[in-house]
## 1
Amino acid sequence: MRRIVMLVATLGALSSSAAYAQESGVSGELEQSATTSPREKTEFADGALAEIEGAVRTVEGLLKDAEAAKEKNAEQIECLVRKLTPMKSLSEVSRQSSNTMKQYLAANDTVHADQEFRKVAVALTKSREFLAEAQACVGDSGVQRGDSSATVTDGGDNYVNDADVPAIDEVPASPWGTER
């Protein structure tokens, strides 16, 4: 029953893809769907599915590591579970949308194929967001402190040393209000 509720919630989120796409920068990919060939749509969907499933496996690994740690962090585990659950639903919905899109393409129904294509594109973007948030749950943003340097000018000849720039200890909260 819980799986059905999650699928319905995920489908509801995907159905509002136009509004989400405008906020998240996906609109460029979605606008291109009208000029994308059926073969390109299929390749995109296959690649998106592989990426989404890879993201799910990554978060499952993070969760497994967190649960196996000597000093278990319940907050960290709960954070990862909150990200993994919708990611699994996105994977399932994306697989269904991809298969449906391929059926519509075979029947030359481009209108419905484009709708399914957009669902996959939005799911990919959302799964990337969940992956980043899951990595933030464990403090793994992919960048280690001190790995980068910057040279900043104030418009004149005054340069700011990167040592003077404060480090960011946390990933900023999502502008869409999703929890970490």
Note: Residues 1-24, 142-180 have pLDDT under 50 and may be disordered.
## 2
Amino acid sequence: MRIARLVTAAAAATALVVFAGGAPAWAHNALTKAVPAKNATVKESPAKVELTFLDSLDDTFAIEVTDGQNQKVPTGKASIDGKTGTAAFTGALANGTYTVTYRLVADDGDPIKGSYEFTVAAPGPAATSASASPDPVVSSPAGPSAPATVAASDASRGGTDRALIVAVVAGVAVLVTGALLLGRRRKNP
């Protein structure tokens, strides 16, 4: 009976570690929406990149856009409005693939980095001004009317991975403790 109480206490402690100890890791700020969207093909040069996250951003937030030759695309300084960060292009983007990279710091101090690509495929010559259209026509793999959302990046899923590791280690600890206690009880009836 005493062993059953010890195993139950160990299981409760494991649950406490997994759910209370892992909470900050699960609370990492993650990208929820991007314009242009991840893997989208836009029909004209966008005026800006706009990224929306789960939580509010602070002055550690940064956006960088590079072209297919890994050359930085000129943008103005990133602006922040609550959960949304925006970087406006200073000129039109030529046809091609672009990579958006973002950086921020989570509430618990962990750095979060992520990136995704989009393609500009304007028919004919590229637009002459980045501000030619504030809302470019977007087509994404899900179709032109699908919302431009992006799942959390691989980089920001690190907290979930750590929580899973903690849960597995804690579960193994409970099993080992239970086995040791049962073995001890059998030796000393």
Note: The chain is about 30% helix and 25% strand.
## 3
Amino acid sequence: MENPWGDLPAEPPYVLPIDHEAVAGARDLQLDALPVPYVGDPAQAAVYILALNPGLAGEPERISADAREQNRLGLTFASTYPFWSLDPRLAGTGGYEWWRPRLQRLADEVGWDVVHRRVMCVQYLPYHSRTFSASRLRIPSQRYSFWLVSEAARSGKVVVIARGHRLWTGAVPELLSSECVALRNPRAVFLTPRNMGSEAFGLVVNRLRQPRP
């Protein structure tokens, strides 16, 4: 399936042309911030984390130029680090500070270089918002994200549903018959043995340790 995110406008509001009609009038969306439909590279990722949507991005003028550049490059899988939110140059930014503690336990096992390359997060809704009140929205760009997750499930990659289990399995039925893990506490998206169960955590670690086919 063709990636639609190369068509994102260069200036706000940052809404894909195919999504304009669907998001018109939607409340609570922060469209002056670059969307984050996913972070990572599907060509390298062995483990997918499924979330709901990116939270508020802060004031656009306070987001570093490096963060904006990597965000935009990441839309077409061209960022310097595949999991670009953890790019060391972005230390101190909201995305870096949010993700690093949540993936720290995995990094303790396999190293940050493996986490950067082989973990991917896909958001159910790509646009920033304060809450997930927009959960009833179905927008055209989601088809690409759902396709990425479907392909991951079909190819035997490990999928961790961090949030929105019913939404994700409804959108991607292949998840019901795949190696799919649900976090015990979806409000705390920490990939740890306690939050995943030792067996599931071990599955994720082992998959990350395996060489790419």
Note: The two ends are 22 Å apart (CA to CA).
